[in-house]
Amino acid sequence: MSTDAERIEKKRRAVPVKYRKLFDRCMAGKASPRDAIKMQCLECWGYDRTETEACDIVTCPLYHHRPYQKRATTRIRRRGASSGGERTESAQ
Ligand code: SF4
Prior knowledge:
The protein is mainly alpha-helical. 54% of the residues lie in helices and 0% in strands. It has one domain (4-91). The protein contains 5 helices and no strands. The termini are far apart. The protein binds iron/sulfur cluster.
């Protein structure tokens, strides 16, 4: 049976280097709730930011608090504008 420190270290090794500081703050209890949610959401999609942005799991309790919402909305708006398409709900 492994200790908490061993489990955390094992998980840390699976975190991409660019997110390790965030992970460390979370594990130390020093991350803000917003950053902790960001870490959870990134982990949820295998640390793929694009996938995290596109999360559509509306039944998740964190859905309305997930990171990168503004960026994803902007991208949808741009896509609609460049295709001469219709406006999205958020653009109205
Ligand atoms: S909001 Fe989406 S990305 Fe975040 S934890 Fe829930 S399902 Fe995962």
